[in-house]
Amino acid sequence: MPKNILNRAYSRQLTKHHKIAVAGVAALGTAALAFSAAPGNAGTVTTGAPAATAQVAATGTVLQNVKGTVTDQLAAKNIKLDTLAAQKKAADAATAKQAADAAAKKAAVAAAVTKAAQQHVVTAAADRSAQRPQMQPVAAKTYANNLDGWIRKSLDIMKAKRIPGSYNGLHRNIMRESSGNPYAINNWDINAVNGIPSKGLLQVIPPTFQAYHVPGTSWNIYDPVANITAAANYAAHRYGSIDNVNSAY
């Protein structure tokens, strides 16, 4: 048992020595390599700090070159992005302009269509107005309130009702029957004896007046126009026309 303990302690001690020796050999190897890498014409070999300084300088140069390359790449990328942004902005502006032009064109077409439709309406109205006969207001015809006016008004009504007769035929019979007095009345003939005396300008008895009354005239037997047209209507039915009457009828 004691023997084994001594062997283990010795082994641990030997190991430490071996480690120191290995470290020394490694250091010598590194120095040798540094010496063999130096140029053949170098007269003096410098070790230590100058070599480290050279390595640092070389590393700095490499870092500067790398930094410059990265900076150049970033700048180029930024320029490319700016170019793309400018192109997109120009494309958006062109699209917006096209849309605005299309909207303006559409609005112009709509305005032209509306104007054409309005012009068509105005033209059509003008054409209709030109084609339509101009209706002149016709003043109501007036008649004098005397025998001439009564006869003329009666003739217009007779014409509208297709009752034959002339101014001369009416005037001649009126003057024989009543001398032109619209309120004349016969109180002595057979009609008066029978209680239906003849009345008015053409001396019409009431039953005859009512039977041959002309629509649109008065129902008053003493009304000059109503009396004339009713008598002319009776004469047309019995004699063909008042013009054919030359005596009491």
UniProtKB/TrEMBL annotation:
<feature type="domain" description="Transglycosylase SLT">
    <location>
        <begin position="174"/>
        <end position="246"/>
    </location>
</feature>
<protein>
    <submittedName>
        <fullName>Transglycosylase SLT domain-containing protein</fullName>
    </submittedName>
</protein>
<dbReference type="InterPro" id="IPR023346">
    <property type="entry name" value="Lysozyme-like_dom_sf"/>
</dbReference>
<dbReference type="InterPro" id="IPR008258">
    <property type="entry name" value="Transglycosylase_SLT_dom_1"/>
</dbReference>
<feature type="signal peptide">
    <location>
        <begin position="1"/>
        <end position="42"/>
    </location>
</feature>
<keyword id="KW-0732">Signal</keyword>
<dbReference type="Pfam" id="PF01464">
    <property type="entry name" value="SLT"/>
</dbReference>
